[in-house]
Amino acid sequence: MNRLKKIDEILAGCRSVVILGHVHPDGDCVGSCLGLYNYIQKVAPQAETDVYLEPFQKEFAFLKGADQVRHEFDTEKTCELCIVCDASDRERLGKGAEIFDRAGRTVSIDHHKTNTGFAGQTFLRAEISSTCELLYEMMEETQMDREIAACLYTGMIHDTGVFKYQSATARTMEIAGKLMAEGIPFTDIIDRTFYQKNYRQSKAMGQALLNSRLYAKGRLICSVLTAEEVERLQAGSMDMEGIVEQLRLVEDVEVSAFLYEKVPGEFKASMRSREYVDVSETAAFFGGGGHARAAGCTLRGSKEEVTGRLLERLEKECLQDGRA
Ligand code: 5GP
Ligand code: MN
Q1: What angle do CA 239, 96, 128 make, to 5 degrees?
Q2: How far apart, in whole angstroms, are the C-alpha atoms of residue 110 and residue 7?
Q3: From atom 7 of ligand 1, which residue's Cα is the shortest distance away?
Q4: Which of 149, 183, 144, 131 is nearest to 63 (CA)?
Q5: Contact, 234 vs 240, CB < 8 A?
Q6: What pLDDT does 2 receive?
């Protein structure tokens, strides 16, 4: 495990930096990439810094620097230093992998226990609830400002379910308090980026809840949206956020799984657990990754095949706690 360095030290005279996140960027990914971008602009203004990310929800557009993010991956781009936030393996970089491969130096800042050590230098803390929280520890407190704080706070609330997951610690709350002290509009950030749903998201949630079925004596719940249903709902991958968390709230459920068909025959699976099942193991088994209580992977085949494969493993895991 690498001793945590300050970002300032990692930059050390560097003149060109590229910041990358993971495919289908979530709140922690966008928050950490933009928090880091704003920090570098401040402490190393001489460095030419670019952020490359796939398109993300427009609710994150209020964060400073969001309008500077490049969504077209420049395949010719070269840089001295590439810093990757919140991504556990090279595959997760999507088209960013080409830029990563050409960088002089690569650094991964991450909190996924499934991190493969794919970068030259890895700053991994799997016990920390979000990459944003980890990033805070790597910043000089004296450089903190309202804009950087808003980015980090956004990531922290997304990866802790607004501070309710087991991963949140006293230190998480302490850091959140310091970020609040910068004068961020925290109520707005929580409402607009976490709880608010647009009409499509609300309909997709409704359909997914209707499609859900219970397994393993009610300890496992699974729902699937087929490509046809996704199309009928006019929903996209950005409209599926929050569904798997909602499913987990059903009484007595230990594991929730939500799958949607991105293109025919390819399903994105999200899993969440409450107490004793480590869903990252199942995700890793199918080539994905994540955390003990939140993980995901992509599965290929027909709806029946993929759900069959996934549920077989999850059912066993759910029934393995010794309870009758
Ligand atoms: P979600 O279910 O919200 O997409 O992801 C939950 C967690 O699992 C996140 O930390 C995310 O980074 C990770 N994750 C989701 N899908 C994949 C995947 O296909 N591969 C890997 N390595 N991690 C994933
Ligand atoms: Mn994260």
Answers
A1: 70
A2: 14
A3: 295
A4: 149
A5: no
A6: 80
What's the Cα-to-Cα distance from 103 to each of 79, 186, 265, rounded to whole Å?
5, 36, 35
pLDDT tens figures, 232-241: 999 999 899 9
Q: Which positions ≥6 away from 226 have C-beta within 8 Å? A: 261, 303
pLDDT tens by residue, 66-106:
999 999 999 899 999 999 999 999 999 999 999 999 999 99
pLDDT, residue 321, reads 74
- CB distance 21 to ligand 1 below 6 Å: no
Rounded to 10 degrees, what is the CA torsion of 104, 99, 96, 69? 90
Phi, psi of 111 (to 5 degrees): -130, 20
What is the helix (H) or strand (E) element at residue 281, kind and residue range? helix 279-285
Counting ligands in written order, the one closest to the CA of 25 is 1
Ligand 1 atom with the shortest distance to the CA of 271: 2
* pTM greater than the 0.90 cutoff: yes
**Position 266: which residue type?**
E
**What whole-number distance in Å separates Cα of residue 26 and Cα of residue 240?**
11
Give me the helix-helix angle, 170-180 and 146-160, nearest 10°.
150
Mean pLDDT for 255-279 is: 97
In eight-state DSSP terms, residue 70 is B
Q: Can you tell me whether residue 159 is helix, strand or coil? A: helix
**End-to-end C-alpha distance for the chain, whole angstroms:** 40
